[in-house]
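Kindly review both lines to help learners:
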Amino acid sequence: MIISKPQNSIDLIEKLPTVRGKYDLNAKIAKYTWFRTGGPAEVLYRPADIEDLANFLYEKPRDIPITLLGVGSNVLVRDGGIPGVVIRLGRPFSTIRTEGSQIYAGAMALDYNVAKVARDEAISGFEFLAGIPGTIGGGLRMNAGAYGRELKDIVTQVMVITQQGKIESLSPEDWGPRYRGCNISTNWVFTGCLMSGSWGNKTDITRAMELVQETREIAQPIRERTGGSTYKNPNGNKAWELIDRSGCRGLRLGNAQVSKKHCNFLVNLGGATAADIEGLGEEVRRRVREVTGVELEWELERIGTPAEDIS
């Protein structure tokens, strides 16, 4: 077990099991998120492999909270940081391999990289993943989708580690995907999944992926510090249309702004705090509710504690 400074979370470290991976105290994790803002993790744990993670979950005291963090594409870390243990999976969880027209992908495999492997092997059905800026693990948690397809359309088997450290393989029914969510406890860790496609033409697949990328480039602020879609689409409505109708396009709070390009995206213009971004998001919700009567539901995952909650 490797421990780095400082001292303020030593008591927590001493309660944690011995691992082959790495513990870091008071770890700066804003750099792992697309917004590039927010407070530190009390303890950051990077497991060596699946068995190391399973052992950690089995031996960890149940009263210590855990939080999973991937590439942070749809996450806002609050300014007070994240208490307990933040788990960030690394290279051992990034495996991508083909099994005929099926693909196994680890939880930290980038969606776009999975789409590229499928393209190179002429496997069709994965093209939409080229438009989702995240990892397979995060995609499983929220049943990520884009351009008319969702992970539930291709996933045939889901691999997890339970809160008790048991490694399990689940059916799609056990996984229970729904619109931007699933039935799996947040205390369980996704480690990967098996997905099924069909044989296709590499040229056609390549062009389909390029079209997805071109469409995303035109419509979304992908070159800015953002967190992806901020709100779920309400039944029968598009969130961005409601936000636009409510006069929120370009709205600012501090250095946070509603994107002028796609107003279901919030943007860190530089130096925005997490409180700026979340406060702006709540103001957008208030205005949409006032103008349209629709209550927008956050899709962006907000984790940790506000700065004023720090003792």
